[in-house]
Amino acid sequence: MGIQFDGINNRVTTGDIVSETGTISGNLGIGGTLTYEDVTNVDSIGIVTARSGIKIGPTAGVAGTFFADGSYITAGILTAKTGSFSGTVTANSFSGDGSSLTGIDATAIKFGGSVKAQANNSGVVVTGIVTANSGADAVTFLKGNSVGIGSTTTAGRNAGVGTATGEIIYNASDSVMQVWTGTLWETVKFKPPINVSGGTISDSARSGYITHTFTSPGNFVTDGSLESSEIFVIGGGAGGGGRRYGAGGGAGGAMFASSVTLSSGTYGVSIGSGGNGGAAASSPGGNDGGHGSDGGNSIFNPGGPQQRQGTGGGGGAAYNPPNFQGRSGGCGGGASSYPNKAGGSTTQPSAPGPGTDYGQPGGAYQNPSSGITGGAGWAPSGGGGCGQAGFGTPAAGPNQQVRGGGNGGDGVQLSISGTATYYGGGGAGGSFSYVTPADQYQAPNDLKCRGGNGGGGCGNNQPNSAPTQVGPGLNPFAAGTGGSSPNQHGVANTGSGGAGMAGAGGYNISPTGAGGNGGSGLVIVAYPKTQAAGEVRF
Asked: How far apart are CA 211 and CA 303, in angstroms?
């Protein structure tokens, strides 16, 4: 028999404890299991171990329940003065503003497990459509390939839909898009893409422009109006004179036009050929060498309202009474070595079409004995370049019979192709020098001539010095350095003139003294890249 408490008589007996009420003032030691069915309060200093859950509240599970797996579910508010959670805390809601919560990633907004808005250092990346629902602006949205700005009326616009600079609206009253510039509402107009063909096309050679380069005849075709276009046209260079004393051929004349409007249509393009070099003398030492042939005209839109022309260069002179003087052309040919003979004049400024014309005369023969100062000897002059007249014979030296010919005039430097480039260099005159029988009859290095910058042919093929000029269109062999280009002909598609005489120079006793050929012409058309791709205009 166990212990029995009698609440009335306070009796204690051995056996099971059975009591309605009772108080134990001292310690109670229980060797077995303490079982209780109905306990209001448990005050424990040590560990309480429950077989299932510990339920809190006047009604089971209302306030919260601790489970044997360590989890806790509360139906009310969980308040913790201090505490530490090593696992995951899951809550359906938080009371308060959450300002004291830390360690929470708030950079992403998710829907259905997918991130829809991701914050980063530069802003927010949105996946999907951003829609603003606010009255009449319900169709406003942003997405990958379109923007919806909604619509309003003129009355709504004037009522103050937006007056910030750059504000864009669709005006349903006038069926136009408008933007507020800060002072007024400007209507936005859309220009469709324009298809353009012809020549060699580049959309990268010049920043912001498309260029069409014609080195042979063809057509420039556009199905829309091209505004702010540029056109460069240069004629073919002329040939240099044949011996004796063959002069340099003139470069083709050039024209550059800007701010040109090219309406829809087809524009023909012709390219001037380079002139042939003058014929050699029929016999060694003969005087019947021919002048160089003129270059051909290059024309954009021949006979049309936008015609632009580069006139072919004038041929270089030869030591032959009918051919003493340089021929006129876009740039004039140089004069032969005969007193008081002039270089050819330029005819380029008379070319049709508005724009800036480039043309220079050829160099005249210079001889102090004739009253023309600055030179002497029996050497011919250089042909004119687009940017500079041809040069006469250099200053007198110890032996006036052994002279270098005049340099060709430099061409003009333009950047229509995207790179600053020289075009239209004049051909050099031939050096007067014997190849045989002795070296003392060769022109000294400082008297060897060069073609003008822009592709002009050089006047002799005696040994070259190292190149001294590098760049688009620059003749690598500068005057006064002993240099002359191995190429006596003008460079193709530069409109440059050919040099006088092949071989060693004007008094070459070889029968092969033909003049150098001129370089062919060129046409370039350029226009803003935005026009071909379509554009937005106000």
From this structure: 23
